[in-house]
Amino acid sequence: MHELAAILQKHQSEYKKIIDFDPAKDKLYRFDFTEANAELRVDDIVDTAKFSTYINHKLETAGAKYGIGGYNEERMLYKRSDLFEGTQPRTVHLGLDIWGPAGTTVHAPLGGTVHSFANNKNFGDYGPTIILQHQLDTRVFCTLYGHLSLDDLLPLKEGKYISRGEIIGRFGNATENGSWPPHLHIQVVEDMRIMKGDYPGVCTLAEREKYLANCPDPDLIVQMMQYTT
């Protein structure tokens, strides 16, 4: 196991819930956005309203409060935006997505400081984004939270301390979150390099191993995938 991943696993008993999810009573639906999902067509994901209808229908049918998934998933979703095109299109998701109602509160799972924040406004981008910096066992790393509400950026300044369990944001709606159905993208980033307020959440197949080495599985912190149906 990668060194940072091992440290994150070691401290699992210390993290606070990232959202209000109770596995004793709430169902959690696992989404599949790979090419293997024959239910989802390109037409459905290009149109934000249709995509939102799809997400809501799957959650309602499953009787699930939230949906989750996506780490290291080779997705078809990014055909919806030119942002991910190129000589080699970016298709591999480096974070974990939690799908649910707009306004869902997001809590810091562990204490840290505000590394940076920005509104990444391109179609299909993160929208309002907050990046926190943490230290465990002398290891410094960041957690990135994307697709939040614009209001969540207003009280922030770099270096501000954020307590474990503190509300840091809310799921933004499609008019402000990069034109996505409401959800949270959470990603662990060991080395931000010189980036602020942004870091790639999707990479090419050729870069997969490099990026995954720098972005271990966020579920080591979130600890929700075990409850999927």
Would you spell out the secondary-structure blueprint of this structure?
Elements lengths: L2 H8 L17 E3 L11 H5 L1 H15 L3 E4 L22 E2 L2 E4 L5 E3 L4 E9 L6 E10 L2 E8 L14 E2 L4 E4 L12 E7 L12 E2 L4 H7 L4 H4 L7
Parallel strand pairs: 1-2
Antiparallel strand pairs: 2-4, 3-12, 4-11, 5-10, 6-7, 6-9, 7-8, 8-11
Which features characterize this protein?
single chain; 229 residues; alpha+beta; Glucose Permease (Domain IIA); 8-stranded mixed sheet
Provide structural commentary.
By secondary structure, the protein is of the alpha+beta class. Helices cover 17% and strands 25% of the residues. The chain has an 8-stranded mixed β-sheet. A two-stranded antiparallel ribbon has the order 3-12. It has a two-stranded antiparallel ribbon with strand order 5-10. The longest helix has 15 residues, at 48-62.
- Can you tell me the CATH class? Mainly Beta
What is the fold named in CATH at topology level? Glucose Permease (Domain IIA)
Alpha-beta classification: alpha+beta
Overall geometry comes to globular
Number of domains: 1
| Distance separating the two termini | 27 Å
What is the helix content? 10-25%
**What integer is the average pLDDT?**
95
Give the count of helical stretches.
Answer: 5
Order of strands side by side in the largest beta sheet? Answer: 1-2-4-11-8-7-6-9
**Low-pLDDT runs:** none
What would a concise description of this structure say?
It is built from five helices and twelve strands.
